[in-house]
Amino acid sequence: MSTPALLDPSTLLERPGQRRSAVRSAAPRRGTALLPAVPRPALVADFLAIAALDAAVERLRAAPAPVRLTLGDAVVEHAADFEQTRTDEPGLLVDVVAEGDLGHHPFRTAYVAGEPVVAEDGRRFVIESAATLRSEPRISTVRLIMACRRTYVSAGDRVRILHHLDECGTGRLVECAAMAINAQDGVAAVLALAVEGLVAVDISRPILPETPVRRRVLPYPDPFGF
């Protein structure tokens, strides 16, 4: 199928498995409960929380300038919602799209087909939706960590936790929590430091006693060179 055809909304229902008759037959049976649609502001909040806890994200910028994106033989100018500067790739352009708006997005077919969309400068473009942002176990882990953001961590506990990680490199969550002797909940104290960006926790896995914790690079210059 040519790229112009991919961008034509009328072709989406004419692809194999997506014909109008197939769409009608895919309707839920009577009595089947449908999950409520997730509004875009809630998805943006999930995206920002994930980006804040993802150690690979070095910088996040909203509403970057429009860029020329290549899809097959076509070039489309598009302004993404966010731009991430990451440690694992040159850059990432992201649109956060509610499920109900996916049908109107210019790259909806590429998103469904898993086809790569790349800017002329090499940055990759992706769409984040409820299906990706709220995948498990990541979303539950992110919510557990963010729930600890108001936990008070005393100066002593803060120093002990961070010094323990300086000494061992990567420590288990249960070991780091044992360093917080002034906190009512040592695990919450460690996770509060993750929200601050001082430690990194793998958000792709559930929170467990053996969850690895490590120091993150300071978001500002360290005058002591540690």
- Helical fraction: 25-40%
Quickly count the helices: 9
Order of strands, main sheet, comes to 1-4-5-7-6-2-3
The H/E string reads HHHEEEEEHEEHHHEHHEE
Main sheet summary: 7 strands, mixed
- Give the number of DSSP strands: 10
Kindly state the mean pLDDT as a whole number? Answer: 85
As a percent range, the share of strand residues is 15-25%
Catalogue the unreliable spans.
Answer: 1-26
Total separate domains: 2
Gap from first CA to last CA: 55 Å
Principal-axes shape call: elongated
Rg calc: 22 Å
Structural class by helix and strand composition: alpha+beta
Question: How would you explain this protein's 3D organization?
Answer:
With 226 residues, the chain is α+β, with helices and mostly antiparallel strands. It is 33% helix and 19% strand. The strands form two sheets. A seven-stranded mixed sheet has the order 1-4-5-7-6-2-3. The protein has a three-stranded antiparallel sheet with strand order 8-10-9. Helix 3 (40-53) packs across helix 6 (138-146).
Describe how the helices and strands are arranged:
Layout: H1 3-6, H2 20-25, H3 40-53, E1 57-62, E2 67-71, E3 74-78, E4 82-86, E5 92-96, H4 108-113, E6 117-119, E7 124-128, H5 130-133, H6 138-146, H7 155-168, E8 170-172, H8 173-178, H9 186-196, E9 199-201, E10 212-215
Parallel strand pairs: 5-7
Antiparallel strand pairs: 1-4, 2-3, 2-6, 4-5, 6-7, 8-10, 9-10
Helix pairs in contact: 3-6
